[in-house]
Amino acid sequence: MKTIGLIGGMSWESTVTYYTEINQLVSQKLGALHSAKILLSSVDFEEIEKCQSANEWEKSGELLLSEALKLEQAGADFLVICTNTMHKVYQQINEQTKIPLIHIADATISELQKNKITNVGLLGTKYTMEQDFYKQRIIDADIEVVIPEANEITTVNDIIFNELVLGEVKHESKEAYLRIIENLVSEGVEGIILGCTEIGLLITQSDVSVPVFDTTLIHSKKAVEYALAQ
Questions:
Q1: pLDDT of 76-85, one tens digit each?
Q2: Percent share of the chain, pLDDT over 70
Q3: Rg of the Cα trace of the chain?
Q4: What is the DSSP letter of 42?
């Protein structure tokens, strides 16, 4: 079994899901008392979020690169960044580390293709929804990406940063998300990407009429597949 290097803390709420899901999947696949070999570096999200707000992405990339190199030196066989938004600095980290870095969008694309999805709605932080670093990767795989209207983007983003990253799950926020999802479905999307690792705390497949692609679960599954591959 390979050792997984997790770069977490963005937020720690969703990092808990990564840790739990990865260990549960390893247990299911291997049985007995097996659990995952994991090295975790958990950053202070306040520092990262300040860089995001100030558009200092290279600085935030340096912070994550420092953690990636620590994990590499400690014996991780590959890396997983436990957040969608910070894949904006994927290249910066990938170019300066010697071990593989599994991209969350690539893992998601594989699931979309398995389900023959050609038109998908994307929810996430405003950075993930509005900028190209994430959705262009999906578009390049011949999958159309639809994002919410401007005011809906603000709603989705505010709920993430003001509630979900703090572990607050509110009924009215779930209702707001479901209305936004309904609007995307009415535009013809065949599925919904939960493109922020906290959204799964609020929305699950049972809430939505079209297939839901929870990137936290998808990324965790891909990490386990890689860890157990011969």
A1: 999 999 999 9
A2: 100
A3: 17
A4: E
At residue 210, the 3 state secondary structure works out as coil
| Structure token digits, residue 193 | 């990407």
The answer to whether 142 touches 168, Cβ cutoff 8 Å, is no
Amino acid at residue number 30: L
Round to whole Å and give the CA distance between 109 and 81. 17
Write down the pTM of the prediction. 0.94
At residue 80, the 3 state secondary structure works out as strand
Angle (CA) 228 83 91, round 5°: 85
**Residue 76 and residue 39 in contact, taking contact as beta carbons nearer than 8 Å:** yes
The residues annotated as belonging to the active site are 83, 196
Name the token pair of 50: 């300040």
What are the Cα distances from residue 106, in Å, to 100, 157, 217, 222? 13, 23, 13, 10
